Amino acid sequence: MRLFLVALQFLTRLPVRLGRFEPAWLNDCVRHFPLVGALVGAVGAGALVGAAQFWPAWVAAVLALVATVLLTGGFHEDGLADTFDALGGVVSRDKALVIMKDSRLGSYGALALVLSLLLRAALLAVLATRPLAGAVAALLASHALARGAAVGVMVSLPYGGDVEHAKAKPLALAVAPGNFAMAIGWCALLLAALTVAGVDVAKLVGAVLSATFVALLMRQWLKRRLGGYTGDGLGATEQLAEIAVLLAFTASI
């Protein structure tokens, strides 16, 4: 429970208060990232279902996005923009790391952020026109699996930036495989619950494969360009995996 609260404090804007803090907790709390993701997805699902009762599908979709962005403070969106600003052009590793730390938004980052928001809004609008149980399942799965994908990248690569200047130094240290195993366990538990609830197994399999593909792709990209992961790279992984899972749920196959 303590590590879950640390993960909740790190990934969201919820006012979590802990009596004390140990740096090692931040490293170990990654095991609960998918669980926090499921919570964020549940908030988005609640906003989508509630808004769909009063407004058109596209309005409900945007309001669902607003709810999740408010809850996370745009944490992962910031990582997506910084990653594409740094790696969108042809620059050296050192230059890319400098760009990632720059608070200004460049053209690559702006394009990635706008296109990501548009695509997610469009996909949620499609889901809002279908039975809303499917939309709820898609939001829960996309947020949980996307954060699981980020943990997978983290556990399979060394830190690619300057550890001394990392914003969250404990996350720049090696993540124990056991933490990744527990993160996968949370994802498996959610998928099992969705299966019992009657969600199409083919959609769930497609969602898992899509998130895995993004994780492998991002792992290769970050390894080639930076020699490892960064916090921004993990944020980009989460955003792209989220889109991939929503694409799997909305695909006509």
UniProtKB/TrEMBL annotation:
Keyword match Protein biosynthesis: no
Catalysed conversion reaction: alpha-ribazole 5'-phosphate + adenosylcob(III)inamide-GDP = adenosylcob(III)alamin 5'-phosphate + GMP + H(+); alpha-ribazole + adenosylcob(III)inamide-GDP = adenosylcob(III)alamin + GMP + H(+)
Transmembrane segments: 35-66, 105-128, 134-159, 171-195, 201-218
Keyword set, alphabetical order: Cell membrane, Cobalamin biosynthesis, Magnesium, Membrane, Transferase, Transmembrane, Transmembrane helix
Membrane-protein topology: Multi-pass membrane protein
Keyword Transmembrane helix: yes
Pathway recorded for this protein: Cofactor biosynthesis; adenosylcobalamin biosynthesis; adenosylcobalamin from cob(II)yrinate a,c-diamide: step 7/7
Signal peptide start-end: none
Superkingdom field: Bacteria
Main localisation: membrane
Cofactors that this protein relies on: Mg(2+)
Protein family per UniProt: Belongs to the CobS family.
Function: Joins adenosylcobinamide-GDP and alpha-ribazole to generate adenosylcobalamin (Ado-cobalamin). Also synthesizes adenosylcobalamin 5'-phosphate from adenosylcobinamide-GDP and alpha-ribazole 5'-phosphate.
Protein name in the entry: Adenosylcobinamide-GDP ribazoletransferase
